[in-house]
Design goal:
With about 325 residues, the protein is α/β, with parallel strands linked by helices. The chain folds into three domains: about 140 residues, P-loop containing nucleotide triphosphate hydrolases (Rossmann fold, 3-Layer(aba) Sandwich); about 70 residues, Helicase, Ruva Protein, domain 3, CATH 1.10.8; about 120 residues, Up-down Bundle (Zinc Finger, Delta Prime, domain 3). The protein is built from 16 helices and five strands. β3, α5 and β4 form a beta-alpha-beta unit. α11 runs antiparallel to α12. The longest helix is centred in the last third of the chain and has 19 residues. The protein is globular and about 70 Å long. The N and C termini lie far apart (about 50 Å).
């Protein structure tokens, strides 16, 4: 069974326990691990004997002895309750053994959780879980800072309600953070709001947020959108000295330009307020649909280059890419 979008994101917290197993995969290793843990906890909860109900398999050992998967799923322990088997860093080479184990799994057998990195559309491992009636494939998308993922992380921390301004600011922060950092931020925010009634306010977010990070990334992307190329180098230097990665900045830029592109096509875009709305309104006077699409393609290529084999210094590559974007729109 293939899951996508919100279904894939929500599955680890509320799985179908009639299934025999699930595959969680994606480029964001931290988020893959976090969802694996949530899925494991959904079965084992806080039981005192949880560790004794969990079996961890090593991918290398399974490659040498494929029967280990089915043996672990069929094993019976001393404690009642459904057991869980985890297999991390799986590859297509294990697809056959996993398919065989799922084919013989019964309702009393352990639930199998398999994790993997990014898998191509034709991956054999993906195909096993997507085709199985008793298993699910739940991808972790690179867009971990999207609205649905953000809402799920907020729900985990008990932050179910938020004012529009607070949500807009959180989405801006999420664009510049990986999922682990954003989850830690929301945890601090939940502690700050502990026992305080009413929805989350923008003032609460600003009180807990890493202001330097958000302000500098926002300023950088504002400059790109408005064509202020002379401001890019100083802004990038500040971001680099704070320890932020070039990939995180590219992801933030992709989100901002995706929002711009949605507006050029009449498709809406996320809610904006105050200064952020003013910048976007001015940007729309410079950018058309074709130019926004060209910018997104260039950002995607830059992302691939930054994640590929080591070459040029990441921030030097990033600076060239953003400079090109700042100068892309022709006078209208």
């Amino acid at each position: 069974m293939k899951l996508s979008g919100s279904a894939a994101a929500r599955f680890p917290s509320a799985p179908d326990k009639a299934l025999a197993g699930a595959l969680i995969y994606g480029e964001d290793g931290a988020e893959v691990s976090a969802r694996r843990d949530r899925l494991r906890d959904a079965f084992l909860g806080g039981a005192a004997e949880a560790d004794l109900l969990l079996t961890r398999l090593d991918a290398g050992e399974v490659r040498r002895e494929p029967a280990l998967i089915l043996d672990a799923m069929k094993a019976r322990g001393f404690f009642s309750g459904r057991q869980v088997v985890t297999l991390d860093n799986a590859t297509d080479g294990l697809a056959g053994a996993i398919e065989a184990a799922l084919g013989e799994a019964g309702p009393e057998d352990a639930f199998l959780i398999v994790t993997a990195g990014a898998l191509q559309k034709r991956s054999k491992l993906r195909a096993v879980f997507e085709a199985a009636r008793n298993a699910a494939a739940a991808p972790v998308y690179a867009d971990a800072g999207g609205p649905e993922a953000l809402r799920l992380m907020m729900d985990e921390q008990g932050l179910e309600r938020a004012e529009d301004g607070a949500m807009a600011l959180l989405q801006t922060y999420a664009a510049g953070m990986d999922s682990g950092t954003m989850r830690d931020f929301l945890r601090r925010l939940a502690l700050y709001r502990l026992d305080e009634p009413g929805p989350l306010r923008e003032a609460d977010v600003r009180a807990c947020a890493p202001d330097a990070l958000s302000a500098d990334i926002d300023s950088l992307l504002d400059s790109v959108l408005l064509g202020a190329a002379e401001r890019l180098s100083p802004a990038l230097r500040r971001i680099e000295t704070q320890g932020e990665g070039a990939v995180a900045v590219v992801l933030a830029a992709q989100r901002r330009f995706a929002d711009l592109h949605a507006r050029t096509t009449g498709g809406g875009g996320r809610p904006l307020f105050g200064a952020a709305k003013d910048v976007m309104d001015r940007a729309l006077r410079r950018w058309g649909q074709a130019e926004a699409e060209a910018a997104l393609r260039h950002l995607f290529e830059t992302d691939l280059a930054l994640r590929g084999p080591a070459g040029a210094a990441p921030f030097a590559l990033l600076e060239r890419a953003l400079m090109r974007l700042a100068l892309l729109p022709k006078p209208r």
